[in-house]
Design brief:
Layout: H1 3-25, E1 45-49, H2 58-65, H3 101-104, H4 108-116, E2 127-130, E3 138-140, H5 145-155, H6 170-183, H7 186-191, E4 196-199, H8 210-213, E5 217-220, H9 231-235, E6 254-255, E7 276-282, H10 291-300, E8 306-310, H11 315-326, E9 328-334, H12 342-349, E10 353-357, E11 376-377, H13 380-383, H14 388-394, H15 398-411, H16 433-456
Parallel strand pairs: 1-2, 1-3, 3-4, 4-5, 5-6, 7-8, 7-9, 9-10, 10-11
Helix pairs in contact: 5-6
């Protein structure tokens, strides 16, 4: 056979093979059967803000500033002065958040919503606000739950906070109204609330409806006062207690920092002579896990180089705390009513090395930052041995102290909420607290999608057992 007679079949074969390879490696354009949960090619977290009346957020602040009576829990008999007093606060679209330490320490709700209220064109963040719920990764619920709870606690009748009576407990009334709106939405019905985000930094925020919002992503300062111990594991002394399935967990929820109350001392400005070994200022008597604080007080109050002050975080107490923290090498952080407190973040702002004595503590942004780089952790058992803690701290070398404080200076910005914009409406600080919170929420999105889609395909009548033994 001549070579020319083979050329045509060979050419056809080569052309067919080439086309096959093109088809094999070319992208396919199958229709997306689930557009609401399509993979996000954009690395930014897409946030839809639930449609709530202004009365549940900035309207609450306007109502706060209209109060004429002072907070009944404060020793100061004067009501807080309104920073917007030169303008009509009721018509102010974005009122200021209160400066009262009892309330401001929980102000994450204010800064997060302020970040989302920012014009998208001026934003450069891990998060972006979207206005189509079907394009959202998560739905942010803009309810100032802390403000609602604190206004009831400080200005309501004593004892009414625990009552499920809308006539006397306005916080409970607002909780129920918010849930009615949110649970009636298309977004909630689609996911069962699993992709919704509630800011509950005050341990008593949304106290009466916790079970109903349990599937959502909850932003909390810690788990104190939230979870119940699983009765099965409590009775089994051979294993540690477990958190019940229907409560908070590190798998679905996010630990956020308190808003620190003391001004930030940058490492370049730290010229203080730190002559005090260990400093603590706060309430001596606490409940539940905070009983360790009373015991530490008795052990440490007469130790040389240790200052234990009891005081309230009013203007006088704030000045004393600034002086005490900035003149001390270490600041004691024992458990209180809950495992953590604002004091930890005040000590970081003051470059006072935290000494954390709280066995059940959970901390913000772990996985993104390493607390052992700038803080010391001591078990409650060791700290309660007379003389042990003071000797341990005296044994920390000057070089180690310098390393810890230098590292602390590097992470101060991570815990900064305030953005310098009027009404808190502006982009969160680059690499600040708001940005880190969005990063942590973003990490929950794949798990949320998986859970929602699994629930969607579950046949009627089939119950899936809860298996999570999360820590």
């Amino acid at each position: 056979m001549k070579l020319s007679s083979l050329s045509l079949p060979i050419s056809i074969f080569l052309a067919f093979s080439f086309l096959s390879l093109l088809l094999l490696f070319s992208p396919r354009s199958n229709p997306d059967p689930n557009p609401a949960f399509r993979p996000n090619p954009n690395p930014r977290l897409r946030i839809y803000v639930a449609d709530l009346p202004r009365a549940f957020n900035y309207g609450l602040l306007a109502q706060f500033w209209s109060l004429s009576a002072p907070d009944s829990r404060l020793p100061d008999p004067h009501p807080e002065s309104n920073p917007d007093s030169n303008s009509n606060s009721k018509s102010n679209k974005y009122p200021q958040y209160p400066t009262s330490p009892l309330i401001r320490q929980y102000s994450a709700e204010y800064w997060l919503l302020g970040d989302l209220e920012t014009d998208a064109r001026s934003r450069d963040s891990v998060a972006v606000r979207v206005f189509d719920v079907d394009q959202a990764d998560v739905i942010f619920v803009p309810f100032f739950a802390t403000m609602s709870a604190e206004m009831q606690l400080g200005w309501g009748s004593k004892g009414d906070f625990l009552k499920k009576d809308e006539r006397v407990n306005l916080d409970y009334k607002r909780q129920k109204e918010v849930l009615e709106i949110v649970k009636g939405s298309k977004a909630w019905k689609r996911s069962g609330g699993r992709d919704h985000v509630f800011v509950l930094t005050d341990p008593v925020a949304m106290w009466h409806v916790k079970d109903e919002i349990a599937p959502a992503i909850l932003l909390v300062v810690d788990f104190g006062g939230w979870y119940k111990l699983d009765s099965h594991s409590t009775n089994n002394r051979t294993s540690p207690p477990r958190i019940e399935h229907n409560q908070v967990s590190l798998i679905k929820d996010v630990i956020v920092p308190y808003t620190h109350l003391l001004p930030t001392l940058h490492i370049s400005d730290d010229k203080n002579i730190r002559s005090t070994l260990l400093y603590f200022k706060g309430a001596k008597h606490r409940h539940r896990g905070g009983l360790v604080r009373e015991k530490l007080w008795e052990i440490l109050q007469n130790e040389r180089g240790v200052i234990m002050e009891e005081g309230f975080p009013n203007s006088t107490g704030k000045a004393q705390s600034i002086k005490g923290m900035r003149s001390s090498q270490f600041c004691l952080h024992p458990a209180g009513d809950t495992p953590t407190s604002c004091r930890l973040f005040d000590s970081i702002a003051s470059l006072c090395i935290p000494v954390i004595v709280s066995d059940n503590i959970v901390l913000p942004f772990e996985g993104l930052i390493d607390y052992s780089d700038f803080a010391l952790f001591v078990s409650e058992g060791k700290a309660l041995e007379p003389g042990w803690l003071v000797e341990y701290l005296r044994g920390v070398s000057g070089r180690e102290i310098e390393r810890l404080r230098r590292n602390m200076g590097k992470v101060q910005r991570v815990f900064e909420f305030e953005n310098g914009f009027d009404g808190g409406v502006g982009p969160g600080l680059e690499n600040g607290a708001v940005e880190h919170i969005w990063r942590m929420v973003q990490q929950k999105v794949p798990m949320v999608r998986e859970t929602v889609l699994r629930e969607k395909r579950r046949p009627d009548g089939v119950e899936v057992p809860l298996r999570c033994h999360c820590t």
